[in-house]
């Protein structure tokens, strides 16, 4: 009887052990601390720190409004943050690095990596790892947790390439490219000034979604309401809700000489909160990359008609803008009058 009881107890212990290691811990043989790459619930992430071997680093933090800022002061690009969060959520271990390749991969990770630290909303560290180079055929990326001993090949389902490119440390690539982001009900004034065509310049005073005045910039003379094409003004004001730059050009070697020129257009927008936003626009020289090199009569183009430069953010940023997108703002006062 006692033997049977002992056998029964032994069987219970074995069953419990099998349940714990198979069902509770899963079928993976990887140590728990070494596979802590993905964060399933990205809504709990409050801060992400990324640093590379060139001493470049960025800190992304979620603000009270749910948006993200870079290095404590600059608005972050929403699209770039979205890609990063999706990557962090979907990180998946493909396989452990083989014993034969382990030492070489560890040496590579020690010299070519970016360090990633992820914190929750209470500033508690929830994941930290090194992101290295691409594995064979770039079908995965070498990664290792900070407290782990072994490297792994990690990937994102549906993505073929090196994940390092998604962990950006260049602050220029993180900064928001927004120039104007104001719905009509937040606008107060819009001033468009052409220094060499002052008679074409204008001011729009906004009192409501369908209430505004149009003034001549030079004379400050009010255009009579019966001369206004309200539909065109409404359409024009709606453009200021979403106006972005194509790229930052702060390191452009020609920047200083370009800024010595007189801008061909200055656009100043103020909102109901007494904030002011200005874009000073400059012509861009024709280069071998310019799409339209010659006019319809065969003459060389005096400047690039598809792209311009602009100085924004209170003179802090020099950017590239597109005629197709930003150029819709280059209207003259006559545009808003009934013909």
Task: Indicate the overall shape.
Answer: elongated
| SSE topology string | HEEEEHEHEEEEHEEEEHEEHEEEE
Tally of discrete structural domains: 2
Q: How many helix segments?
A: 6
Give the strand order of the largest sheet, numbering strands 1, 2, ... along the chain: 4-3-2-1-6-7-8-9-5
Outline the low-pLDDT stretches: 17-32
How widely separated are the two ends? 109 Å
Major sheet: size, sense and barrel closure? 9 strands, antiparallel
Mean pLDDT: 89
DSSP strand tally? 19
Structural class: alpha+beta
Strand content: 25-35%
Determine Rg (CA atoms, Å): 29 Å
User: Please, what is the oligomeric state?
Assistant: single chain
Give the proportion of residues in helices.
10-25%
Secondary structure: elements and pairs:
Layout: H1 2-24, E1 45-52, E2 57-62, E3 68-70, E4 74-75, H2 78-90, E5 92-96, H3 99-111, E6 114-120, E7 125-134, E8 141-145, E9 152-155, H4 171-174, E10 178-180, E11 187-193, E12 202-208, E13 211-216, H5 230-238, E14 243-244, E15 247-248, H6 255-259, E16 265-271, E17 276-283, E18 307-312, E19 317-322
Antiparallel strand pairs: 1-2, 1-6, 2-3, 3-4, 5-9, 6-7, 7-8, 8-9, 10-14, 11-12, 11-16, 12-13, 15-19, 16-17, 17-18, 18-19
Structure overview:
The structure is a single chain. The strands form three sheets. A nine-stranded antiparallel β-sheet has the order 4-3-2-1-6-7-8-9-5. An eight-stranded antiparallel β-sheet has the order 13-12-11-16-17-18-19-15. It has helices spanning 2-24, 78-90, 99-111, 171-174, 230-238, 255-259; strands at 45-52, 57-62, 68-70, 74-75, 92-96, 114-120, 125-134, 141-145, 152-155, 178-180, 187-193, 202-208, 211-216, 243-244, 247-248, 265-271, 276-283, 307-312, 317-322. It is of the alpha+beta class and 339 residues long. The longest helix has 23 residues, at 2-24. It has two domains: 32-174, no CATH class; 178-336, no CATH class. The protein is built from six helices and 19 strands. Helix content is 20%, strand content 31%.
């Amino acid at each position: 009887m006692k033997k049977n009881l002992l056998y029964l107890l032994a069987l219970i212990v074995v069953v419990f052990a099998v349940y714990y290691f198979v069902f509770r811990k899963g079928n993976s043989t990887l140590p728990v601390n070494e596979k802590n790459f993905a964060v399933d619930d990205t809504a709990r992430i409050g801060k992400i720190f990324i640093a590379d071997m060139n001493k470049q680093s960025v800190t992304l933090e979620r603000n009270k409004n749910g948006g993200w800022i870079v290095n404590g002061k600059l608005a972050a690009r929403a699209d770039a943050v979205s890609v990063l969060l999706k990557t962090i959520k979907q990180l998946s271990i493909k396989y452990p690095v083989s014993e034969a390749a382990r030492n070489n991969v560890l040496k590579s990770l020690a010299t070519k990596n970016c360090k990633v630290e992820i914190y929750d909303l209470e500033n508690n560290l929830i994941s930290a790892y090194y992101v290295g180079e691409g594995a064979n055929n770039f079908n995965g990326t070498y990664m290792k947790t900070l407290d782990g001993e072994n490297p792994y090949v990690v990937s994102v389902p549906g993505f073929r390439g090196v994940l390092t490119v998604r962990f950006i440390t260049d602050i220029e690539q993180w900064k928001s490219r927004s120039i104007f982001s104001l719905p009509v009900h937040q606008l107060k004034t819009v001033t468009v000034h052409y220094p060499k065509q002052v008679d074409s310049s204008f001011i729009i005073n906004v009192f409501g979604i369908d209430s505004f005045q149009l003034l001549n910039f030079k004379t400050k003379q009010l255009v009579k309401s019966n001369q206004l094409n309200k539909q065109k003004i409404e359409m024009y004001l709606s453009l200021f809700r979403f106006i972005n730059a194509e790229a930052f050009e702060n390191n452009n070697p020609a920047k200083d000489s370009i800024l010595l020129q007189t801008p061909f257009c200055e656009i100043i927008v103020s909102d109901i909160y007494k904030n002011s936003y200005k874009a000073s626009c400059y012509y861009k020289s024709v280069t071998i990359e310019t799409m339209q090199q010659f006019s319809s009569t065969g003459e060389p183009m005096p400047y690039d008609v598809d792209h311009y430069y602009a100085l924004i953010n209170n003179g802090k940023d020099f950017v590239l803008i597109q005629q197709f997108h930003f150029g819709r703002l280059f209207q003259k006062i006559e545009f808003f009058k009934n013909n």
